[in-house]
Amino acid sequence: MDTKEKILYSSLDMFAKRGYSAVSIRDIAVSVNIKESSIYYHFRNKQDILDSIVKKYEEHIGELTDMLSAAVSNTDNSKPLSFEAMKTYFFEQYLFDPFCNKMMRFMMIEQFNSEKMQSLYERYLFELPEKIQTGAFFMMCKNGIISEQQARQFGQAFFSEMTMLTFRYLLNGELTEVKKNVFCEKAFSFFDTMKGETENG
After folding, report:
1. 3 assigned to some structural domain
2. What is the Cα–Cα distance from 170 to 95, expressed in whole angstroms?
3. pLDDT per position in the chain (201 positions), as tens?
4. Would 25 be classed as within a structural domain?
5. Can you give the residue range of the structural domain that contains 77?
6. pTM higher than 0.90 for the full model?
7. How far apart are CA 95 and CA 103, in angstroms?
């Protein structure tokens, strides 16, 4: 990891714990073990650091969304919904990813201080996950596996459960392997129940 990346990761780590306004350029320089003036070789100011963090996060989310959407739409009709695809793209590369997880925690804090951050919080913790998760069930509807009413019902139920599990296990205190394992177990159990209901009509 080069110096610029270290600055981004260290800044986000502190932003997620203290909030944006409580972290200074000096704090960031100390955490990366460089001179304060060296920060300005890579970034214009603290806002530029934050803008770069958001850009990196949004680019990552865009790539994952495309991959997950492709995985869902290309799923064989006999296997209408893949937990492994959800686990790989949505859990491991997003919810469990240290950078993304810290960004979510930061948005939870900063939504009260910034309209832009409040908008990002709403979009990436609620609107986009709901679109992706409910979209998987509507793809099943499109393939004639379940009805539109079932797609809407199952999609909302799955999204609600995933949101509750995310806040309880992944955004509550330190993110540990134990919490990630419990999250996966409970998510799989609920997913399996929902899949059984779809197969039983």
Report:
1. no
2. 7
3. 899 999 999 999 999 999 999 999 999 999 999 999 999 999 999 999 999 999 999 999 998 888 777 766 665 544 545 667 778 778 898 999 999 999 999 999 999 999 999 999 999 999 988 888 787 777 777 777 778 888 888 888 989 999 999 999 999 999 999 999 999 999 989 877 876 665 665
4. no
5. 53-199
6. no
7. 10
